TrEMBL record:
One of its GO terms (biological process) is carbohydrate metabolic process. PANTHER family: SPERMATOGENESIS-ASSOCIATED PROTEIN 20. Residues 7-168 form the Spermatogenesis-associated protein 20-like TRX domain. Pfam families: Thioredox_DsbH (PF03190). CDD domains: SSP411. This is SPT20 protein. It comes from the Eukaryota.
């Protein structure tokens, strides 16, 4: 590689996204006091650019504008330029995204915002082309106009930025409004179900025409709705909507049929042509939701998808020390000699390439049939490519095929006069061969940043899959990742979580010079993961750590006046707003998940203040939950869990005994959204017995493993039969 002509301060950062911009001619600063002081001393505006390393349009804006010497000179002359990785600093991202959405009606990345020297926003947008076009003003023009405004109308700009900030403070406030009780759960659940039902795509599943996102939060809501309405037509429809969506996604091009795992989202209605980046948070949530689909349906198809996701994460997103990396990029070089990257290049196929790789004749099939014929028929491959040009504005996928399962193995078998079992074996052979061929291509960029929150979601995915599929290896992988978090993303001296760590040279794990403290989402998703891991492994140490983190979360983020948790802790003068997220999106909002966390924590500790806190969160979001619960499906789900009270399913028995294992298998194979599991193993000095003294009064019946189903610490009669226990688990 040639020696870079420019190097800026980002060269000293750890974030892969910031390092991507370290050789721009722009004099970038990371978010921090050095940049703020420079802006104040020189009385300059700040240009803030926020993105992430696998963001396609972030790459485009860098290529077009930030690598331009001429545009770099304009930026350096008139502005202090700050680069932020939104995955490292979701707090900074949320403050300014709130502004961009409020003033432009839309948002996205890269986010481009202009701030006064005291960090107040007054202008912003997302991607700007470098030069003026017919419909859009160019980035160069915007820079020069804003610099001119600051010179000519400084006081007006300052006044305007102050007004904007006050308005944002007012509109973004979420607090309890007079009434201090949670909203009625039946009304919230029914409204959310009806809103999802109206937006549901009957043909292809999902909840919009296009683009289509996986949105596991919607599917989890539907599973809980079904569990509470199993005998009604609405319950049946909820289950059908969820399972059909999951099947269509798994058949679609959003699912990587050769390299496993799921891409970010589909650009079309059919789940066919995706944006090709793969995010850890999607894999973690989808592993959990497909595990639930298997629990409910017993259909091995869903278990296979779980195994597929976890194979991808274990192979491609795992650090040797046990943590999980954040993402793989959409763009890569088509060949080792290519000069420029293309979206999807690593994943797509030309028909002639497939024919060359799969030329073998298939015995017993229609005469002349090759492996390539079977594979191409099954996965919708066309000679001229199968991507609609409307979904490929830059012609990057011209003549290429995105694999999508167009037939069942039975239909493909009938077409070629083969047995379905034989077709499955042939397709598997093709996949292995194509996987080897694909391994020769240049890989997309890997973002090796490790985030506490996303690792939490992935630990939950492995732990829940391990429990539902009875796969001990998945539980062990979850435990390995939790141990990684405790070593690298937890400060035992302060008792606090850290946000991020990074893969260093020689596969070491590195931390930034000034570590970023954990945000609310880090605590919430890690606590959820530790509860899931306890239920899968029965190791009480995970429970103890989860309860410690819950106390710390209360201390750092709870809003005693307006209720619910702030996303960030108090005391950072560079953050103009302390916000509470109010939308379950690609990830659930932390306040939604924490309702169930608090209820679980109370069951494991007897600390009933946590139940009260859960109710206060629901009260703070009450208006939104009653009017548009579709924006908060995970919190809507939690209103039902809150109302129905969690069942404590307690097994008295030796965890290694066959009778105990049989009961555990029964509990784990049933989808029951309002239960917590614990094993009372007779160790009266153990953590659970210290937390819950009533456990010592529960005994084995006739020397056998015995189950008790308790509600608010009042227990049922003892049960030793698995059939009886199964009957008691229904919501």
């Amino acid at each position: 590689p040639s020696v870079p002509r420019h190097t800026n301060r980002l060269i000293n950062e750890k974030s892969p996204y910031l390092l991507q911009h370290a050789h721009n001619p722009v004099d970038w600063y990371p978010w921090g006091q050095e940049a703020f002081d420079k802006a104040k001393i020189e009385n300059k505006l700040i240009f803030l650019s926020v993105g992430y390393s696998t963001c396609h349009w972030c790459h485009v804006m860098e290529e077009e504008s930030f690598k331009s010497k001429e545009i770099g000179e304009i930026m350096n002359e008139h502005f202090v330029c700050i680069k932020v990785d939104r995955e490292e600093r979701p707090d900074v991202d949320k403050v300014y995204m709130t502004f961009v959405q409020a003033t432009s009606g839309g948002g996205g990345w890269p986010m481009s915002v202009w701030l006064t020297p005291d960090l107040k926003p007054f202008a912003g947008g997302t991607y700007f082309p470098p030069e003026d076009g017919v419909h859009r003003v160019g980035f160069r023009t915007v820079l020069l106009r804003i610099a001119e405004q600051w010179k000519e109308n400084k006081d007006a700009l300052l006044e305007s930025s102050q007004r904007i900030l006050e308005a944002l403070r007012h509109t973004s406030e979420i607090r309890v409004q007079g009434q201090e009780s949670p909203p009625p759960p039946k009304e919230v659940m029914d409204t959310c179900f009806q809103q999802l039902s109206r937006s549901y795509d009957e043909d292809y599943g999902g909840f919009s025409k296009s683009p289509k996102f996986p949105t596991p939060v919607n599917l989890n809501f539907l599973f809980t709705y079904w569990a509470l309405h199993q005998t009604t037509p609405e319950g049946a429809r909820a289950l059908q909507m969820a399972l059909h969506t999951l099947k269509m996604m798994a058949h679609g091009g959003i699912h990587d049929h050769i390299g496993q795992g799921f891409h970010r989202y589909s650009t079309d209605q059919h789940w066919h042509v995706p944006h090709f980046e793969k995010m850890l948070y999607d894999q973690g949530q989808l592993a959990a939701v497909y595990s639930r689909a298997f629990q409910i349906s017993g259909d091995e198809f869903f278990a296979d998808v779980v195994r597929d996701i976890l194979l991808y994460v274990s192979r491609d997103l795992s650090d040797p020390a046990g943590g999980f990396y954040s993402a793989e990029d959409a763009d890569s070089y088509p060949t080792t000699t290519s000069g420029e990257k293309r979206e999807g290049a690593f994943c797509v196929w030309a028909a002639e390439e497939l024919r060359a790789l799969l030329p073998d004749p298939v015995e017993g099939a229609t005469e002349g049939t090759t492996l390539g014929d079977v594979f191409m028929h099954h996965y919708g491959v066309e000679e001229a490519g199968n991507v609609d040009p409307m979904k490929d504005p830059h012609q990057e996928l011209k003549g290429k095929n995105v694999l999508i399962a167009r037939c069942s193995p039975e239909l493909t078998a009938a077409w070629f006069r083969l047995e379905p079992g034989r077709v499955r074996a042939l397709l598997q052979e093709c996949q292995q061969r194509l996987s080897s061929a694909r391994a020769q291509r240049p890989r997309p960029h890997l973002d090796t940043k490790m985030l506490a929150a996303w690792n939490g979601l992935m630990i939950s995915g492995f732990a829940q899959a391990g429990a539902a599929l009875a796969e001990q290896g998945y539980v062990s992988r979850a435990a390995q990742a939790a141990a990684f978090l405790r070593t690298h993303l937890f400060d035992p001296d302060s008792g606090r979580l850290l946000r991020s760590c990074y893969r260093g040279k020689d596969n070491s794990v590195e931390q930034s010079a000034v570590p970023i403290q954990g945000f609310l989402e880090d605590y919430v998703f890690v606590i959820q993961a530790l509860f899931d891991l306890y239920e899968a492994s029965l190791e009480q140490g995970w429970l103890e750590w989860a309860l410690h983190l819950q106390h710390m979360q209360d201390k750092l983020f709870w809003d005693p006046k307006g209720f619910a948790y702030f996303s960030t802790e108090a005391g950072d003068p560079s953050l103009l707003l302390r916000l509470k997220d109010d939308q379950d999106g690609a990830e659930p909002t932390p306040n939604s998940v924490t309702v169930t966390n608090l209820l679980r924590a109370a069951c494991y500790s007897g600390h009933m203040d946590w139940v009260e806190k859960a109710g206060k969160i629901l009260a703070a979001f009450s208006e939104r939950l009653q009017k548009i619960p579709i924006t908060l499906p995970e919190m809507a789900r939690a209103t039902a869990v809150f109302h129905h009270t969690l069942k404590q399913v307690i097994i008295c028995g030796d965890p290694q005994g066959e009778d105990t294992k049989e009961m555990l298998h029964c509990i784990r194979s049933v989808f029951s959204p309002n239960k917590v599991l614990m094993v009372a193993d007779g160790d009266s000095a153990g953590f659970l017995y210290r937390q819950l003294p009533f456990l010592s009064s529960l005994e084995r019946k006739d020397g056998k493993a015995t189950a008790y189903v308790c509600s608010n610490f009042t227990c049922s009669l003892p049960v030793t039969s698995v059939q009886e226990l199964r009957g008691m688990l229904s919501p």
